[in-house]
Amino acid sequence: ISDSNACLLEDSILIGYTPVYNGEEICAVSTDTLFGTHVLIWNKTPNKGTRFYRVYGANSASGTFSLINTIPYDTFSLFPDTNSMHLNKVWYYQLRAVDSCGNEGSGSLVQPNLYLQITSNNQLNWNNISSVPGATNIKVWRSINSGAFQQIATLASTASSYIDTTATGVSRRYYLEVDLMPNCHINIGGI
């Protein structure tokens, strides 16, 4: 800048910029059987400038992801996907942090829900969940004739099937439980 006497004045200013945070990960995708929804859970990382999250979904891990919803940072780190089109099949989710300038991060690892199918010969099949961070075991639970559920097997997280040979000729119900990393928490927090 110069004044009327042709004196020059120079100065500089340093504007700090923190890139949008790319480290958020979905730690669980569950199914709420009471309400018929998939539920995403993630741990928030504080002090990263995140203003909100965008949840994306697709019908394959390499598919085209579409925006499902936007979740403010200062609410619970939980998203119930109430879209019935995503139920009764494998659906893939991705979480992306967005900063106060509207810059969107590259996104979390893609995580599927756990989709269980049962064949007529008592074979349980489900999609592979070995990509889920912190998944250690899959527990198979069974109810006979509408009785209480009992655990009947513990499998590695790489398993994707199980044959139940101990309960034939009776009415059966099953569910799967996945042991996850111990620090998967629904949390709420400010920026």
Question: How would you describe what is shown here?
Answer:
The protein is mainly β. The chain is 0% helix and 40% strand. It is built from no helices and 13 strands. The strands form four sheets. The chain has a four-stranded antiparallel β-sheet with strand order 4-3-6-7, with no helix packed on it. Strands 1-2-5 form a three-stranded antiparallel β-sheet, with no helix packed on it. It has a three-stranded antiparallel β-sheet with strand order 8-9-12, with no helix packed on it. The mean pLDDT is 84.
Give the gist of this structure.
The protein is mainly β and 191 residues long. 0% of the residues lie in helices and 40% in strands. It has strands spanning 26-32, 37-42, 50-58, 66-72, 78-81, 92-99, 111-112, 116-118, 123-126, 137-144, 150-156, 161-163, 172-179.
Give the arrangement of secondary structure elements.
Layout: E1 26-32, E2 37-42, E3 50-58, E4 66-72, E5 78-81, E6 92-99, E7 111-112, E8 116-118, E9 123-126, E10 137-144, E11 150-156, E12 161-163, E13 172-179
Characteristics:
3-stranded antiparallel beta sheet, 0% helix, mainly beta, 4-stranded antiparallel beta sheet, 191 residues, elongated
What structural class results from the helix and strand content? mainly beta
Report strand %: 35-45%
Number of helices: 0
Helix content: under 10%
User: Uncertain runs with pLDDT below 50, 5 residues or more?
Assistant: none
The topology string of helices and strands comes to EEEEEEEEEEEEE
Shape: elongated
| Biggest sheet statistics | 4 strands, antiparallel
Let me know the average pLDDT.
Answer: 84
Instruction: State the total count of DSSP E strands.
Output: 13
Task: Going across the biggest sheet, name each strand in turn.
Answer: 4-3-6-7
Query: What does the radius of gyration come to?
Result: 23 Å
Note the gap between the termini: 38 Å
